[in-house]
Amino acid sequence: MPAYAIYNTPHKDFNLLHWGHFDAPDAYFALKVGEQTMAFVSELEYDRCRAVGTFDNVFLWSDIRKELKKRFRSGSFWQNFFQFLKDTYAVERFVVPDDFPAAIYAEISRQIPVAFDASFFEGQRAIKTDTDLSEIREACTLTADVLKEAIRILRESAVEEGVLYFEDEILTSERLRAMMEVYCLERGGIADGTIVACGRDGAYPHCVGSGALRAGELIVIDVFPYLKTSHFYGDMTRTVVKGHATSEQKNIYQAVLDCQTALLEQLRPDVLTSDLQTFALRFFEQRGYGLKRTEFGTEGFIHSVGHGIGLDIHEYPSVGSKPIALKPGMVITVEPGLYFPTVGGVRIEDDVLITNDGCEILTSCDKTLELS
Amino acid sequence: MPAYAIYNTPHKDFNLLHWGHFDAPDAYFALKVGEQTMAFVSELEYDRCRAVGTFDNVFLWSDIRKELKKRFRSGSFWQNFFQFLKDTYAVERFVVPDDFPAAIYAEISRQIPVAFDASFFEGQRAIKTDTDLSEIREACTLTADVLKEAIRILRESAVEEGVLYFEDEILTSERLRAMMEVYCLERGGIADGTIVACGRDGAYPHCVGSGALRAGELIVIDVFPYLKTSHFYGDMTRTVVKGHATSEQKNIYQAVLDCQTALLEQLRPDVLTSDLQTFALRFFEQRGYGLKRTEFGTEGFIHSVGHGIGLDIHEYPSVGSKPIALKPGMVITVEPGLYFPTVGGVRIEDDVLITNDGCEILTSCDKTLELS
Q: Rounded CA gap, A5 and A148, in Å?
């Protein structure tokens, strides 16, 4: 029988959290043999892991060390530990994730059969369970609420000499971000790195933005909180202009909105993610927004259509150039965007569940460009 | 010349963030050859990495792929990429961290000389720079402010039938944690997993705590926020009793406080971390609080004396059973604690900088047990 092994912290490999529902700040070892799951932890975590985790068995490293001393006269700790597991559970081969620690792999792989199977580990959380989905729905609702709060603040802001003021103070990216993140935390979610990117800041998809928000410029707002209780994420983006948008801004916006609408209509089981990526690139080319390198930087659609979302913000499947067939129960983001170093960016992003015959949008929020 | 390589996301390997000051949600590749640093990123991150990062060179994966196609007729992407780096930078051997992705290691290690050097990677951030230190001081001040706010709320709480009330509402672990975390976020820090563990909850060092806070019971408060701007952490714990403590609680508390004081007095360069761990274990034994397994769980001092702290919450050096010599410029936590499944826990934790002749405490907050 193969045995699947992970050695990591739960926040670096969320499969660990999904296997045994046990969160910890340090690395621990987990093994899955058939339907049996087991964890190997320190004295510090032992009682808590047994009390709150769902592993079938929990072992103490100190007990294991004693056992290995009895059984083995030579060999390193990891060599002996894997040999012990192999003997105890009649393991034919160990299967580890691609990012298993190379130092341990190098130590054991001459004696112990170790294989990689990215598809197994990627697949562990790709099809959401009912429990996962109910958490994701809650995270998506919270995410939409935070975005609506940002739009409310922008709507209620006044404009003086081109700059936004909210409650008589300049509204900066930093201030709006802080208000959104506090609003989110008060409702049980942690949002970090929330993007409020005005004008040229928006040309870099991952620039968080800084300085005063200005009327008449594109403002990209991208928020992706996780629920403190379960660590499930939501992820949404809207782009707005306070006051009047120029016709250039409107054209860019309409291209992105039309692209997203067209993408959402194509989502159903068995569609290949790479076809969606190709579609978006061609769609933008046809609207005159092809990808090109300029002296100021790269412009056009410079990222992938989306990504799986769940316990991790970016998880399997990526919705990009690698062909992956969508399956019912997958949750992905759909986030086409266009970026222009001298103008800024437009991105519209929603989270969707792939259903048996299409998709269900989990994030709902108005898509009006101009805020009066 | 050796070349040091990392392939990870900056929040899974903070050396990446420290090398090039470039934060991103996805993995990228970085190389250090002599004093030269370089990053290899996607189109999505290219312009931003060049604008805000401090890498000497930034390369686009798509350009590299084109170059590899020209140069190589066979071989996998990673094999060819490492061969290309080896040729281009006259690399004798690549040195990678222990948690380098095993799948890549397995692919390249037959053709390319790859070695591990944990001490190099561990050492990258162990001695704090002046910039690091100024961020850590700020993080520690914020951490202490959040803890003081918690203690203020506990002091101002009323007790009715043994339960704490603040502003006429029951004060639960969840509510106090939420108030602390919002207070922290409003001041630029993100605290997640803040521990407010009352009574038996405190017996598990990493249990965050739940339910109504009660007078006369030990309450462990452990908060460890990072600054949103720089991601440097602070980490502090205090233990209090609202109202009167029993003599058992007072004795446990005094043992932990005396142990921490004695540990702080021993800190100076060249002291071995393992000697501190042994000291703490013996100290508690002599006070009658030896480590023992009971039918209800493990009691005593069940974790290590502390850990390095910086961009990551737990980083090198660990202050536990592995002997590591302290050096000036290291920042560590000093956090002895005692845990009793049927009573609860006591932990007192401060962050200290190792100086040339001792240590400087970076976190300051009262250590009174009883709050009237």
A: 42
Chain A contact for B90, CB < 8 A? no
Calpha distance A369→B57 (Å, rounded):
38
Average pLDDT over residues B175-179: 97
* Token pair of B360 as six digits: 């400087």
Rg (CA), chain B: 24
Chain B residues touching A14 at Cβ < 8 A: none
* Final residue of a structural domain among B74, B108, B123: B123
A22 and A49 inside one domain: yes
Residue A320 touches chain B, beta carbons under 8 Å:
no
Nearest CA in chain B to A52: B207
How many Å apart are CA A204 and CA A302, to the nearest integer? 9
Nearest CA in chain B to A99: B101
Question: Which two three-digit tokens encode residue A99?
Answer: 């990012």
Among B43, B101, B313, beta carbon nearest to A25: B313
Domain count for chain B, please give it. 2
Average pLDDT over all residues of chain B: 96
Q: Give the separation between CA A66 and CA A57, rounded to whole angstroms.
A: 18
User: Which chain A residues contact residue B24 at CB under 8 A?
Assistant: 206
Cβ of B182 within 8 Å of Cβ of A185? The answer is yes
**B163 and B311 in one domain?**
yes
Phi/psi at A76 (5° precision): -85, 170
Separation between Cα atoms, residue B236 and residue B116, nearest integer Å: 33
The pLDDT of residue A316? 96
A115 reaches B (C-beta below 8 A): no
Please give the span between the terminal C-alpha atoms of chain A, in angstroms, as a whole number. 64
Measured between beta carbons, the chain A residues lying within 8 angstroms of B103 are 97-100, 116, 118
Q: Is the peptide bond before B2 cis (omega within 30 degrees of 0)?
A: no
Residues B96 and B146 in one domain: no
Cross-chain Cβ contact B182/A178 below 8 Å: no
Residues 173-212 of A with CB under 8 A from B: 178, 181-182, 185-186, 190, 192-193, 203-207
Length of chain A: 372
pTM of the model: 0.93
CATH number where A23 lies: 3.40.350.10
What is the spatial distance between Cα B214 and Cα B233, in angstroms, rounded to a whole number? 30
Q: For A365-368, which contacts have Cβ atoms below 8 Å and span 24 or more sequence positions?
A: A365/A144, A365/A147, A365/A148, A365/A151, A365/A236, A365/A238, A366/A148, A366/A151, A366/A238, A367/A238, A367/A257, A368/A240
- CA–CA dist B236, B222 (Å, integer): 6
Which CATH number covers residue B220?
3.90.230.10
Q: Is B284 on the interface with A (CB under 8 A)?
A: no
Contacts of A192 in chain B (CB under 8 A): 190, 228
pLDDT at residue number A1:
86
> Do both A307 and A158 map to the same domain?
yes
pLDDT in tens, B286-302: 999 999 989 888 899 99
* Number of residues that this document lists for chain B: 372
Residues 19-38 of B with CB under 8 A from A: 23-26
Task: In whole angstroms, give the CA distance from residue B26 to residue A303.
Answer: 12
